[in-house]
Write a structure and sequence with these properties.
Elements: E1 2-7, H1 13-23, E2 36-40, H2 50-53, H3 69-80, E3 85-91, E4 96-104, E5 109-113, H4 121-126, E6 129-134, H5 137-152, H6 156-175, E7 184-187, H7 193-209
Length: 220
């Protein structure tokens, strides 16, 4: 079962996935032999060239062209066929791939979260459930500022400049329109217990049919 969780920057996509994992007894992120696996689309950012690294503020990380959809398709096809897949590792502080990967195999349910999970038609067609996390723009901006300062070594001015130059325009043009492809829209993210219960209930049904108890999932 492949589930896509899309939404704008800092909308709560990761928090929603973590809440689903917790409710079903899973843990952690990509990797290992867990029955329930969470993968971030950010792992599939393309490597930047030396020329692109120089004016890094101008590079649009919120544009579909910044992702390697071909590689992502291959990984998801392998997981859908219950084959081993290698998920690349990405370093946000240097905006580059680490040259290493995480092995994922044996998953009955895959949660794929990211900006453009519902953007690409081929990827959408692979998904059994399509979720869009819909959060107020001011809340998303405040969360992004806190996150990028704490986790990605950036300052407020840089975050705001990037938000105005690329993040908001790309959201309006590329991300927000994909909400129409969602089966479930989750306002307020992980705080929306009713929506989380709907998603986890559907996953629990799938796991039951597979003969896997939701509370007996392997830790990742």
């Amino acid at each position: 079962m492949l589930i896509g969780v899309a939404g704008g920057t800092a909308s709560g996509k990761t928090s929603v996935c973590r809440r689903i994992m917790q409710e079903l007894g899973g843990a952690g992120g990509a990797g290992g032999h867990g029955r329930l696996v969470n993968i971030s689309m950010d792992c599939f950012y393309k490597d930047l060239s030396a020329e692109q690294h120089a004016p890094i503020l101008e590079y649009n990380f919120d544009h579909p062209d910044s992702f390697d959809f071909g590689e992502l398709h291959g990984v998801m096809e392998n997981l859908r066929g219950r084959r081993r897949a290698e998920v690349p590792q990405y370093d946000y502080t240097t905006s580059s791939r680490l040259g290493t990967s995480t092995t994922v195999e044996g998953a009955e349910v895959v949660l794929l979260e990211g900006l453009f999970v519902l953007y690409d038609e081929g990827l959408r067609e692979m998904l059994d459930m399509r979720v869009f996390v819909d959060t107020d723009a001011d809340t998303r901006l405040a969360r992004r500022i806190r996150r990028d300062i704490a986790e990605r070594g950036r300052d407020v001015a840089r975050v705001l400049d990037q938000y105005e130059a690329t993040v908001k325009p790309s959201y309006d043009q590329y991300v927000q329109p994909t909400k129409r492809h969602a089966d479930i829209v989750i306002p307020r993210g992980a705080e929306n217990e009713v929506a989380i219960d709907l998603v986890t209930g559907k996953i629990a049904q799938h796991l039951s049919r597979c003969g896997t108890s939701p509370r007996a999932l392997d830790a990742l």
